[in-house]
C-alpha cells in the first residue's frame, strides 16, 4: 500500500492516470449492488410481475444501468473514456432483496471495474426510484466489485 | 401499499408520473452513502491529507457528486428533469469508513430524493475509483434516504 | 407565411427565439411516429410477447423515448432547455406497423412540440435498433405533430 | 427470421449484444430521412436562401445531425458506444420535400446503421423545428437504411 | 473582497451556493471572446464567404456556442442548472480578428454570466477548430464579461 | 493556405473530415489558457490556500477541465469522438495571473488539439466562476495551442 504514495504528484493535483504505454487486453469486470426492499414489498412486486405504475421495474433498471455504464467516463471525473464490447445484467430476486450483477467487457488499455460498478449502482438507484412511492424503507447495500480479469492483477472477491 | 397498484397502467407500460397539477413547494432531501475502506486505508489517507496519485479524494468526490446530482433526470429514466437551488455534501471520516451525506433543495412540483441519492452514490463511486488501486476490499454500503420534506408526506429515517 | 420573413435577422445568423416576454401557460403536445415492420414480423413479435434477444422491445422504446424527450434542448440546436411535467407513450400495434404516440406537458413560456417529436422519433429508432437484426425492411414513417395546445395558436392535425 | 429467437435470454431481460469476439472491419452505413414541407414552403425557403429567423436551416440541420450521430450510444439504449471516422450529409431539395442522406463510417466490431439513422432523424427534426412556426403541415417520412457494408451481411435498399 | 472569506466553509469543501432564498428576477449577461486569425486569414475567409472545407465557420460557431450555453450547468461544476429564455450571438469580423458577443437572458434566482461566457468560449473554440488546418497562429484572447443586470449588483465593463 | 480551399465541398455544407484512411499514431497536444486575476486577488487566494466559499479553486478547475476534455466531441460540432489515454494539467500561479497548461495524449487517427484547448478553456472558465463573486475584473486571455506531435506536421509555438 505504501508504495503507491511514491507516485504522488508533487503538487498533489488531480489527474487521469496515463495509460498510453499499457497494452490492450480483454478486460472483464463484474460488480454487484443489492437493493433491500423487505419481504412484503418483494411479495407484492412478484405478484404484480414486477410492474408498478411507472412500468416494468427490473427492465427499466437494466436499461438505466446499461446506459449509465456507457457513460462512466462522463460521471467519474478521472475515469478514461472507454467503449464497451458487452454489458449484461443479472437480476436475482431473493426473499427480501434484489441482487443486481453487472458484467462489462472491453478490449482496452485499462480496466472496466468502474463501468460495472456504475452500471450496478444506477440499476439499483432506478429500482429505488420505481419503488420509493410504496415504501420508505428501501436501502441500497453492498455495492462492490466481484471480480476483474485481463489487467496487471486479476481479482476474485 | 396495495392502494398503489390501482394506478397500474392498463398496458403496464413505463411512464413518468404527471406532476402538472401539483403545487410548487420547497423540497429538501438528504441521502447518505457509506464507503467502507478499512482502518488501515483510512489511516493512510488521513496521513496523506486525503491525497493520492489521482489528487484530492474527498474534493473530487464532492464535485463528481454535485455534477451527477444535477444530471439525475438524465440518468434515472422516469425522474423529472429538475433544477437545483442547492446541493451540499458532508464527508464524515470514521475509523473504518467515510459517511457521505448529500443534501439537495429546490422549489418544485416534485421531490429531490433521487437527486440526493444520485449525488451521494456518485460521490461514493468516485471515492471507490480514487482508492481502488490501493485496496481491493472497498465496499459501498448503506445508500439510503435520511429525510425529505416539502412534499405530501415528510419523512425522517 | 410571408409575414414570418420580416423577422429575418439582418445578418441571417442562427439564434434562439427570445421567449422572455411570453407568459407561462400549460403547454401540451402530442406527436406520432409510425414504424413499419410488415405483417410477418409483427406476428413473430406478438408471439414472442414483444421480446427479442435484446429484451422487451416496446418497453425499451418507451424508456429511450422518455429519456430523449427530456434531452430535447440538448439535441435540437435552437430549442429552449425546458423541464417536463409529464411524458407518456402509447404503443398501438397494428397488423403491419406500430403507431407510437408521445404526449408531453409542461407549464412554460414556450411549447413542447419538439419534446413530443423527439420522444416519438427516438422510441421509433429504438424499435428499429431492436428489430434490425431480424429484418432489413423496416421503415420509420409519418413522424408528425398530432396536436398542441396552450400557446398562441392551438393546433389539431 | 425464426432462427433469431433461439437467442432469447432465458429471463427475457434486455441486454447489449456481446461484440467482443467480432473482428474490426471498415463499416459504412447510409440512411435517409425525408421531410415533407410542401411546394409553397420549399419555394419560400429557396427564395430566402434557406434562411429563416432562426438562421440557416440546412446547415443547422447538418450540424445537429452530426452531433447526434456522435451520441448514438447515448440515445439508443442497447447500441454500443462507438467513435466515428466520418459522418457526412447530403441535402437534396426537391419540389415538395428535402431528402436527407447521412453516411457514417468507422473501423469497428459492429455496424454504424443506428448512427446514420440517428443522424438523419435529428437533422430532419431540426428542419422541423426551424420551419414549424411557418407551417403546421410538416411531416417527417421515410426514415430508413439505404445501405450498409463491412459486416456479416451487406445490404442495399 | 475580504468580506467574502467569512463565508468559508469550516471544512473548505466545494459546494454550490444556496440560491433558494433569492428572488427570481430577469437576469441578462453579455460576454465576449475574441479570436485572432491575422489579416491574411481574415481576408481569405471573407473571400470564401466564411466557408471552409468543414462548412460555414461563423454559423457553426454560433450553433456550438448556443448548445454549450444551454449545457453550462453540465460543464462548470458548481453552476446551478438553469434554463435560458434567450441566447443570441453577434459576430463582428475585424481586420485581424473576430469579436464574438454572446447575450443570455433568463428569469431566475441567479445570474447567467457563466452561460454567456461558456457560449462565447465554445463559439471561439469552434472557430479555432474550423480554421486550425489553415493556420497555426490562432489565439483566443480576451474572454470576459461585458455586462450583467438583474442581480444584486449590476455591472458594466 | 490557398491549397486548402480546393477541398471546398461543392455545396459548402458543413461536415466532419474523413479520417478513415489515416494511420493511428500517438498524438499529443499541449494547450494553454491564462486567467488574469490581478495582484490583489492572487495574494488573497494564496493566503487562503486557493480555497473560497465554493471550495478548492485549482482542484475544481482541473477536474472540470479533465471532464470537459473527455467530452470535446460532444461540444465542438465537427470534432471526431475520441477517447483519451492521458489528460494532465499544470497550474502555474504568477503574480497577477494563473497559467493553465493542459496536455492530452491518445493513440488515434486524428489529433487531440481541440481536447487540450477545451480542457484548458473549461478549467479557465471554472476559475472564473469560482472567483467572480470577489472581483469583476477577471479576464481569460491567451488560450492557444503550445505544441502538437504525432500527426502529419508537428508544431511548437
Automatic annotation (TrEMBL), chains A, B, C, D, E, F:
It catalyses: (8S)-3',8-cyclo-7,8-dihydroguanosine 5'-triphosphate = cyclic pyranopterin phosphate + diphosphate. It is an enzyme of class 4 (lyase). Its EC number is 4.6.1.17. Pathway: Cofactor biosynthesis; molybdopterin biosynthesis. Residues 16-151 form the Molybdopterin cofactor biosynthesis C (MoaC) domain. One of its GO terms (molecular function) is cyclic pyranopterin monophosphate synthase activity. It comes from the Bacteria. SUPFAM superfamilies: Molybdenum cofactor biosynthesis protein C, MoaC (SSF55040). Catalyzes the conversion of (8S)-3',8-cyclo-7,8-dihydroguanosine 5'-triphosphate to cyclic pyranopterin monophosphate (cPMP). This is cyclic pyranopterin monophosphate synthase. It comes from Aquirufa beregesia. The lineage of its organism: Bacteria, Pseudomonadati, Bacteroidota, Cytophagia, Cytophagales.
Amino acid at each position: 500500500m505504501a508504495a503507491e504514495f511514491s507516485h504522488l504528484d508533487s503538487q498533489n493535483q488531480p489527474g487521469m492516470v496515463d495509460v498510453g504505454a499499457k497494452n490492450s487486453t480483454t478486460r472483464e469486470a463484474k460488480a454487484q449492488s443489492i437493493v433491500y426492499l423487505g419481504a412484503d414489498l418483494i411479495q407484492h412486486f412478484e405478484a404484480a410481475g414486477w410492474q408498478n405504475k411507472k412500468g416494468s421495474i427490473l427492465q427499466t433498471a437494466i436499461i438505466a444501468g446499461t446506459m449509465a455504464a456507457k457513460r462512466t467516463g462522463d460521471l467519474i471525473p478521472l475515469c478514461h473514456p472507454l467503449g464497451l464490447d458487452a454489458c449484461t445484467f443479472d437480476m436475482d430476486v431473493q426473499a427480501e432483496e434484489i441482487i443486481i450483477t453487472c458484467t462489462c467487457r472491453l478490449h482496452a488499455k485499462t480496466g472496466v471495474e468502474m463501468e460495472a460498478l456504475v452500471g450496478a449502482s444506477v440499476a439499483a438507484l432506478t429500482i429505488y426510484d420505481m419503488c420509493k412511492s410504496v415504501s420508505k424503507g428501501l436501502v441500497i447495500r453492498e455495492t462492490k466489485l466481484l471480480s476483474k480479469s485481463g489487467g496487471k492483477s486479476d481479482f476474485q472477491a
